[in-house]
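To start, one record:
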Amino acid sequence: MDHEDVDSLTTEEDDDSNSTEVVQPLVSDANLQFRGFCQLLIAMAVLGAIFSFIGYVSGPQTCDDDNLFEMLGQFMFWTGMLGIPINLFILLISFANSEFDSKDVFVWTLIHFVVSMLFLFLFVEYILKNMFCDPCMGSPGEDC
């Protein structure tokens, strides 16, 4: 193929691109908003787990003293986890709403769930550190 042949091919393609056809977006606005929502929840879960780890490593290893990283990290992580039932509710709504692509909603709900569970299992010690701190634990018959 000569250089002249390549030039003639590109000019033909340029002529076709100037047509007046309206191109429909591949993803609806509702799905784009849902993707952004899921990405925000995923970022909160990931950063929350990492902040919990930083707080656990940098702070004292007791139940009493939580530092800012640990408190912020646990709040962020559990807020991100709270999005899982919200995503399931949005998935149910997407079945009846033609504005949503249910397959896209399902994929992003699944991605959010998998990433959240992965970081929960990777950082479980740091996220659940204070869960069993109370010596009595509310058991009947214990003398506290």
